[in-house]
Amino acid sequence: MDTKRTTFNNRLLPYMLLAPQLAITLVFFIWPAAQAVKSSFEREDPFGFSTVFVGLTHYRRLFEDPNYLDALWRTAVFAVSVTILSMMLGLAFAAAVNRLTRSARIYTTLLVWPYAVAPVVAGVLWWFLFNTSTGLLPFFLERIGIRWDHDLNGTHAMILIIIAAAWKQISYNFLFFLAGLQSVPQSLIEAAAIDGSGPVRRFFTISLPLLSPTTFFLFIINVNYTMFDTFPIVDATTGGGPAQATTTLVYKVYQDGYVGLNIGSSSAQSVLLMLIVMLLTFVQFRFVERRVQY
């Protein structure tokens, strides 16, 4: 059978096709990142009329600032909680839908809908549900002896943003886990069933190990999501309060840079946040990927 190949003699064509994407990456990613690194070594007045080179002063002050260290710890708790909660629930929903035969499409559609909701809308939705005056959830919690008040209780506020952020990300995890479960060879499942393995044992001995590439991918995506994309949720629900109990690293960058007009410190925080995410990604690829079974 003859195969026809299309060849392009113009050597500039590949570069022309890549040019739009490279331009977007340069303008919206590389250039702002370079400007942030530059600003982190300078002290600039709020109106941008003068700048003074200060070296590593901003970085040194950040590691001496207890508020920044507290935000670092809160971000770690928030990231771990949201990642574990959203991935576990996404996997549970995917496993449940994968066992359905007739109504799988209906449940899939219903579970995907939250992903189409904007993060700020998700934050406002859960703010209304947990509102101490008109919310339904505080009413039911009070019936069992729990007095909910995220406006005064920092732990309640942290739980609120964790639930809102995890709810927003469950749909994304559900889609990938469901696709991974549907790609598991049915011959393996049937062979294990013939040997007498129950559904739970088949899931943990066959399906879950084969989902390790998907789990590894989603782990990286969820960590990056908690570090960057949860800013609208925090801003819409708690605004970093009460008493900075929900001020994560990305929200502190906004508070110090946009609200406080401390451009140098805010730039240093954004650079450190980028380095933290890069370090976590490197550690995941360097050590966690070893246990992934492709």
UniProtKB/TrEMBL annotation:
Gene Ontology BP annotations: transmembrane transport
Entry protein name: sn-glycerol-3-phosphate transport system permease protein UgpA
InterPro entries: MetI-like, MetI-like_sf, UgpAE/MalFG_permease
Membrane spanning residue stretches: 12-34, 71-94, 106-129, 157-181, 202-221, 268-288
PROSITE patterns given in the database record: ABC_TM1 (PS50928)
Entries under CDD domains matching the protein: TM_PBP2
NCBIfam families: PRK10561.1 (NF007852)
Function (record text): Part of the ABC transporter complex UgpBAEC involved in sn-glycerol-3-phosphate (G3P) import. Probably responsible for the translocation of the substrate across the membrane.
Subcellular location(s) of the protein: Cell inner membrane; Cell membrane
